[in-house]
Amino acid sequence: MNVLMPQLGETVSEGTIAVWHIKVGDTVTKDDPLLDVETDKAAIEVPAPEAGVISAINVAEGDTVDVGVVLVVIDVEGEKSTAADTETANPAAAPAQVPTPVAALISSPASTLATGAVAKSGAMLSPAVRKLVSRHNLDVSAIAGTGKKGRVTRQDVLAIINGGTARTDAAPAQTAVTGRSTPVPVPTPIGSDARSLIPFDRIRKLTADHMVMSKATSPHVLQAVEVDYTGVDAVRKSHGPGWKADKGYSLTYLPFIAKAIVLGLREFPKINSSIVGEALQLHPLINLGIAVDLNFEGLVVPVVRDCANKSVGQIAEGIKALSIKARSKSLSPDDFAGGTYTISNSGPFGTLMTAPVINQPQVAIMSTDGIRKRPVVIESESGDSIAIRPVGILAQSFDHRAFDGAYSAAFMNRVRNILEQQDWASEL
Amino acid sequence: MAQLSYREAVAAAIAQEMRRDPNVLFLGEDVAVAGGVFKATVGLLEEFGPLRVRDTPISEQAILGAAMGAAMTGLKPIAEIMFSDFFAVCWDTVVNEIAKARYMSNGQHECPLVIRSANGGGARFGAQHSQSIENWAMAVPGIKVVAPSNAADVKGLLAASIQDPDPVLFFEQKSMYGTKCAVPEGDYVIPLGQANISREGSDVTVVALAAMVPKALKAAKILQEKHGVSCEVIDPRCLVPLDTKSILESVSKTGRLVTVEENPRLCGWGAEIASIVGEECFWNLDSPITRITTPHIPLASVDVLEDLMIPSVDRIVSVVSEMD
Amino acid sequence: MGTKVTKSKAKTGSAGKYPLNETKQLELYQKMAECRALQQRAHDLFMQNLVKGTTHLGLGQEAIAAGFGAAMREDDYTFNTYRGHNHNYVRGVSMTAILGELMGRDIGQLRGKGGSMHITDTTKGAMGSYAIIGAHMPIAAGAAWSAQYRGTEQAAVCFFGDGTTNIGTFHEALNFAAVWKLPVVYVCENNQYMEYTAIGDVTAVPNPAADRAASYGLPSILVDGNDAEVMYETAMAALEKARSGGGPTLIEAVTYRHYGHSRADPGKYRPDEEVAEWKNNRDPVPNYRNKLLAAGMDESKLAAIDANTEEMVDKATEEAKSSGPPPDEIAFTDVWADGGAAWRN
Q: Fold for domain B196-321?
């Protein structure tokens, strides 16, 4: 029996062998882990589909192969031959002879075959799209395809990269591509030796490239508001212990902030969007990306989907589920797909304020920072007084191409008001 | 500008060059007294006389050999091969002699001649009088290959071919002899090797030649109006020298290439262009390169079958609108 | 079996219209002797593997080239086949250039781009050697047409073999030249074998060229191609007719090749006694030498030519050998008039 490179999400066409758990000659039982596969989005474990003896391992650790490639062969007792598997793995090898109408004879005879082969691979990405996605480290699954059968076309990708007149002019793409290849002078390190040199791992490289691309693509503007979390705090105090007893984890500020952002986004839809060509593509769903730190070994942004009508509790559960999967490295590629707005949470470390970098192709990102008690001036009809309140800063970076500061500021103000004034007990 | 037919443009260009250069002579079957079986050379005998405009026997090898011998010794002959299908009976003279004379002699021989010929289908003449053989010519090093798509290009490109110091095969599209367009008066020359961007567009590059150009333009209009697809139609005009720059630039812009060829499928000129684009423009391709050709069959005579085989406006619209 | 053409059938001897003085006779002998030495050296170099590819030698056929060479004007055009070293040489083409080309050296006439079958020197009126049977017959007509149009009184002479008389261009060209009254002389060198097959075995008429002349309204001319003086006189008459507007001439000159068709072909398809007869009794070079001696020519003059010829061919061989192969870059020159090979921008 052949074990093939699995389809790791809807739009992933290849994977890298991270580690083999078995060697040739090993006996495995069904569901024993065979190997770990990494994609640009996640690592997953491939289990044995049947019990048997490993007769061949075809791909080495570190190699990248297409979906559908035979990775390992298991001799399963009672199985006649692996020939049948080989044939199904290469459906293009033997096209069926079927009677052909005249119209088909006139046109290119190979078209049926080619379409079949492409469809089978699962990734209808043209050379142009592959090149652009690779160079710019884009998440293809997040790009809305406008081509036949939803295919992501080169124009779709160019639109996101350039935000320019991609449909009629390819020149910006050329500039972007060649611009990246300009060598940058590297300062000579002082007193360096091999032991102090930490090579970038895959996730570091991807993050680095994405950050550079994002900063190059979007003119970032930072705006921050100071939020009084008294109302939120009250609900956390009253419902927190019961929550923890029930769910097994603490009720943090984050799901409240997320809910407030969702409510704000519903009123300010341009912030939940992407730039396509010379247009702003509003996203019908609110999919919140939550930046999750992997114990200082990297950053991933899994997505809580369709938050528009989720309660604080539902959002909290979504965030918790993703962070558990992230830290156990069991996120699937689909867990990363489709984010429309991102929250980066440095708050637990007590930061004052963070200027986050936009997670492309989104147009804004929120940082939630440390919340601590501070003296606050309370204005009332009977005069000003000073009170001690839990206060923290929310800081949003936005893409100034998409909208202006006033729109962003109005949104920030709205989020603050929601956080300070909402009846949170009823929202839980 | 005067409205001239494609056939009138042929005579206009020859006359223009014969007036300019007394070393330009013209020979072929039925070309002088009769003015050509397609009436494309009417009036030349009357203006230039029987020493410069001469009828020949039905001897294609003699016609081309004589043209070559004259070209090697200081003259600039224009020879007519009545139907391009007849190149098959004198292909030795073209391929082994005319094309190679300069190279084999290490540059001693000059061969400045033009061979005009009526090419292509659409006239219900059957398989021996309807072929599009520009791709045969393209396969031979040492000859230039021109195939104009309208009367203005006929005049400008034929004049350039006559002036050119190298041998040129000039393919006139027989179904287009009656088509008219505005043709510049006076001396008019279009340099060889410059493609014409017949229509600008952004979604698909359609490379078409000769009779396929007006069809591609009609298809482009329909594709824009009914399917919202913007076609850039490029007419290379010459297969050798080939303006690959214009084609590569266009495909880099659109990400898609369709060739529309009247020649049968195997080794048609579009295959060479597809190969060049595949090699040099691969990473800008957003869709498989697609060739629209006559199928790999001899052409039938009857109109319904001939029209079915030669690429049509409908076929172009259908193929392009279904592209990824 | 070869066609047995005898002296009695072919025209021989001088008609006296174009008398040969001693200078002209010595010129004829010298041309033949030099052609003989050049061809023999080409054969030797081939056997030493210094000549690559192929060679088609005209050993035994020197009288035809020599006769025409002595009769032609400097600005006349010669068109010949791959068996054309003699025809080029008699126009004044350099021996070193020919041997260099055969050996593929940079000093070669075409710097190795043509080879043995394509010797050409347009500056001498040697308009090329054509390796497709019959292809050059219409081309020669074209050069004659050009001369006719330009009014230069030049003539074109086109040499071809007996096998050519059965290919289409032979008939197309002769009809064309006759109809247009072109100043061209067609010379069939009937060496009696095409490649390995006797011409008589595959041709409907006994004299493959002469018997067809009437088809084009031309007189039938059959001459002894191994008699240099006959060839000279025949050439003079044909060229005069051409220059005076009388139109083309078709000449069949009967001869024999001493070696096989090409390369190291031993020619075993020919009867031994036939080869012996032509080599021993009808060899044009010694026969002409003997004829001149018999007519009272001072032998020292002929001996001086012999000695000088030997020196020339040795010198040419050494010059050719001293040259290296051509540089790689010339592979990409002279496809087009601009000197280059570019087919795209």
A: Rossmann fold (3.40.50)
